[in-house]
Amino acid sequence: MVEYYWPAKEKTQAIGRKVRRLDGMAKATGAAKYTYDVNLKNQLIAKGLGCPHAHCLIKSIDVTPALRVPGVVEAMPLKKAGDRVEFQGDLLAVVAAESEGAAREGLAACKVEYELQPVFVRDDDLEAAKAAGRTTPGGGRVQLEKDAPANQNEEEFAKNEIERLLKESAYVVEGEYGIDAITHCCLEPHGTTVEWKDGKLTAYLSTQNVSGTAGGFAQPLGIAPSDVEVRCEYIGGGFGSKFAADYWSVAAAQIAKKTGRPVKFMLDRDQELKIAGNRPSGYLKVRLGADKEGRITVWDSEHWGTGGATGGGVSQTVIPYVFAPKNYRRNAINIRTNNGPSRAWRAPNHPQACALTQTALDDLARKMGADSLDIFLKNLGTDDAALVAGAKPSVYRAELEIAARLMDWKAKWHPHGKGPARGSIVDGLGLALHTWGGGAGQSSCTVRIHPNGDVESMCGTQDLGTGTRTVIALVLAETFGLPYDSIRVHIGSSKYPVSGASGGSTTVGGVSESHRRAGQEAFAKLAELVAKKLEVDPSTLEAVGGRIQVAGNPSKSVSWKEACSLLGMQPLEVTVNFQRGTRSNLSSSQVGGVQMAHVEVDKETGVVRLKKFVAVQDMGLIISPQQAISQINGAVIMGIAYALFEQRINDPATGAFVNAELGNYKLCRIGDIGEIVVELYEPESERRRGVIGLGEPPVISPGAAISNAVCNALGVRVPRLPLTPQRVLEALAKAKA
Amino acid sequence: MAQRTTSLSPREGFSRRAFLRGSGAVAAATALVREPAAAVAQQAAPQVVAGPTTITLDVNGQARQVRVEPRTTLLEVLRYQLDLTGAKPICTDGSSGGATVLVDGKPMQANLMLAMQAVGKKITTVEGLAQDPVPKAFVECDAQQCGFCTPGFVVAVRAFLNMKPSATEEDIRKGLNGNLCRCGTYANVIQAALKVVKGGA
Questions:
Q1: Mean pLDDT of B73-88
Q2: CB A629 to CB B151 under 8 A?
Q3: Exposed (0-12), middle (13-18) or buried (19+): which is B58, by Cβ within 10 Å?
Q4: Would the CATH topology of A35-117+190-266 be identical to that of A278-438+588-736?
Q5: Rounded CA separation A208/A212 (Å)
Q6: pLDDT tens, residue by residue, A139-174
Q7: Which CATH number is B53-124's, of 3.40.1650.10, 2.60.120.260, 3.10.20.30, 1.10.10.10?
Q8: Of A244, A540, B184, B199, whose CA is between 20 and 30 Å from A41?
Q9: Domain A278-438+588-736 is found in CATH 3.40.47.10
Q10: B180/A669 Cβ within 8 A
Q11: Which residues of A touch B145 (CB under 8 A)?
């Protein structure tokens, strides 16, 4: 029985080292083949016809004119007369042709008649949504320290109790906050390149779920899942939107079958933004009461928003965010709009919840004339009596101290709106904090040691940019005492052992579990052979620096190659299946992180610029620090984008998503980011919890931290993200009036 | 067969003026033009062509024969015919920089350029920069995550540093705003570009 463990920090030989990512050069020279790049012999190019209307009935659809366009080989309707289309861009037909140009000409030739239906896209206007019959309850919860007396109606009691608590509060903040819907905007759009051979389908799919998407092809195509291989060597962004096979990929497979030719079908840019995923909007009205110290005593909120045509919104379960006052009432209302259905967006619900509620906490500091950092600290509680959810108060506290030092918070701080101005420019500080579960996802892998010393691994996982290959290589290099770039890592095929989807910050945990376990078991078998040769107890052996030796005694050793030659003809192979939720020394869950922003705002133009951003992040044990830093940098930059620039803009009359091109859908650019300081928080207390995961947490706080910094600069809350110049100027004008 | 025509002067390559003139010819002659070879040469030069045509492009120092229609973009030729898939189709309006290639040393968006416009010009794609210090610096500084924007960024950094070999950090922050990254690798890209300036890669 092998006992799984991570070596102590000072004993590591691979994990925790800053290394170059294994596939870095392939990516930087264009050699890496993404789904979009896979060119199969004789392939057809398919393009989709997006519905121009946000809500309509299809009166008729005829794709046959497309077949008369030179170069068009196949045309397939995806909707029929009588079908209802509930968002712009939904695909009506696919045309496959010899070239992109011919496919587009074919799409233009398709004849569709529409009957327009009433459109609703005003997700921020709750009254309008109610009047239009577009709302559904999103759930809620009431928690009070006092129980309702037996003879009293609970709802009535709660109402009175909350009013009483607010009345008795030393401070009350009433506010409205909002955060608009954004899209995933993967730079590689969703899509697939498919090929049939002997009744079997190979689907090169841009997916964050290599092991879990074969069924999404097999079921609609009426074939066995085992006759589908999903492959994804490289994926150009997913962020939570690429878990499914998706109907357009199935259509590609159908056309490929009918024509007997491979088909490439990637969404166009506007389709990617309109139909392939977005993050629900959220708008919140709150009354918050606090004691004279600035501790929240009562929270009462209602929020609404939209997840698009299928409804949904920001979950009430994370309101207020991280801070968990003893008395609260929260209620959510979901709105159905004529927009594409939302998909999981990096840390589902958390960024919105953070931006909607930690802004209110900062407004408490503003009202009190207090330092925001002090108010946040006061609301943490202690490890024995926590006032926060997720990570321990002591973790947040330690991280806040580090962040404050890196930001030079104390020296820079001024009360809200009271900082010195340079002409029309004022600056300000803001902070926010976050938590995320993460933990190791399910992961199986096979590790094979060849008699010549080569080590290879197979795992049906994927690399979203996290550095999955590099992580696996570091784990095996650590276990076998080999250079990490000598490990041959194979991922990205559904024919490899099943490994979980990359969602919820579970991939690094999962693959670290499976590969460390398989590695340790393989080493134990190899150690038995070596022990015989060296005539020692196998339990005394360790793999260090390319040798297997008696611990601490290099004179009693064999080289790795020599050890592997003891295997004879057959490679040594170990397959391990790690199930999520298994108790383990190698992984656990739940992290905390804090972030601080320093901005400057031009009161004349309304333009906000990031000067400096500090991110301090716990993630348990860190396998690959360079990639961890990159991922935090990236999350912060993504956060700056949704805090300042990014929004889906709908025309209220037609419902059209008017900025569904990258020229108008504003993302961060290199000049927008200021200075970003990342601190990996890995004290022994957190490291010994094992691997936890990092993808989601650092993207949560930027919205609130930046909004709070702008509020600190101006002394006025700009209530809704993104903080566009127009909104900044409107908030200033409103405050003046 | 083809319903679109345009003009091509083999000696001079393709010009905007010629394109406009060629388009004019389409309006007048669409009904007549049915054969690929039916070049409607209304004037001695430039020549007006319709349908698929074979042209030769100079890509990464090699002469490559490709078959294009007037509407075929340089990006389509690179990706589908030459299997040079480093330049990426990310946007339709040039705003992402994903399809950046060097055309006679200048950064251009291959998706906004017709293949015929590239005749007679030197095209360098990211694959042609495999031995350049820029991709190496990107790897050293981990200036990539998913990597889909990386080739465009690599070419853009090369072009920018050709223009400004001693670029400062401020220059880089101001000068490389034409490329989008969704994963957020900008901080590392700045470091990579600085590394190339300092000759460290």
A1: 98
A2: no
A3: middle
A4: no
A5: 9
A6: 999 999 999 888 889 999 999 999 999 999 999 999
A7: 3.10.20.30
A8: A244
A9: no
A10: yes
A11: 464-466, 630-631, 634
Find the closest chain A residue to B73 by CA distance.
A101
Note the pLDDT tens digit of each residue in A230-241. 999 999 999 999
User: What's the pLDDT at B49?
Assistant: 74
Domain spanning A9-32+440-578, CATH class: alpha beta
Confidence at residue B201, expressed as pLDDT on a 0 to 100 scale: 57
Q: Cis link prior to B36 (omega < 30° from 0)?
A: no
Dihedral, B18, B20, B25, B28 alpha carbons, nearest 10: -160
Nearest CA in chain B to A187: B90
Q: Which of A52, A63, A62, A122 is nearest to A95 (CA)?
A: A63
E runs forming strands in A477-607: 488-491, 541-544, 547-550, 553-559, 572-578, 591-602
Query: Are B57 and B77 contacting, i.e. CB atoms less than 8 angstroms apart?
Result: yes
- Across the range A417-445, mean pLDDT stands at 97
Residues in contact with B110: Cβ distance below 8 Å, sequence separation at least 6, in sequence order: B73, B74, B75, B78, B87, B99, B100, B101, B125
Alpha carbons A586 and A43: distance in angstroms, whole number: 45
User: pTM for the full model?
Assistant: 0.94
Please enumerate in sequence order all residues whose Cβ is within 8 A of that of A684, keeping only pairs 6 or more positions apart, or say none. A9
The terminus-to-terminus CA distance of chain A in angstroms comes to 74
**Strand pairing report for B5-8 and A720-721:** unpaired
Could you tell me the two tokens for A91?
Answer: 């695909």
Cross-strand partners of A234: A34
Maximum separation of any 2 CA atoms in chain A, in Å: 88
What CATH topology corresponds to B129-197? DNA polymerase; domain 1 (1.10.150)
Reported ipTM exceeds the 0.90 cut: yes
Distance, in angstroms, between B80 CA and closest chain A CA? Answer: 7
Out of A187, A239, A669, whose CB is closest to B98?
A187
CA distance A475 to A447: 12
Beta-carbon separation of B84 and A30 below 8 A: yes
Q: What is the mean pLDDT of residues B32-58?
A: 64
Stretch B107-127: mean pLDDT: 97
- Give the CA-trace dihedral at A356, A357, A359, A364, to 10 degrees: 150
Our CA angle for A430, A434, A438, nearest 5°, is 155
Parallel, antiparallel or unpaired: strands A488-491 and A455-459: parallel
On whether the A35-117+190-266 domain is CATH 3.90.1150.10, my answer is no
The type of residue at A722 is: P
How far is the C-alpha of A456 from the C-alpha of A405, rounded, in Å?
A: 44
How close does chain B come to A631, measured CA to CA in Å?
8
Q: Report d(CA B137, CA B154) in Å as an integer.
A: 9
Q: Which two tokens stand for residue A97?
A: 């042709």
What are the chain A neighbours of B96 within 8 Å (beta carbons)?
187, 662
Please report, for chain B, the start and end positions of each structural domain, with discontinuous segments joined by +.
5-50, 53-124, 129-197
Q: What are the helix (H) ranges across B60-181?
A: 74-76, 133-140, 150-163, 169-175
**CA–CA gap between residue A102 and residue A72 (Å, rounded):** 6
Q: Are B123 and B159 in contact (CB under 8 A)?
A: no
Element (H, E) at A229: strand A228-231
Is B190 in contact with A100 (Cβ distance < 8 A)?
no
Supply A559's token pair: 């080289």
What are the distances in angstroms from CA A634 to CA A466, A678, B181, B183?
10, 11, 9, 5
User: Residue A447 is inside which H or E element, if any?
Assistant: strand A443-449
Residue in this structure with the two tokens 């993200």, named with its chain if needed: A721
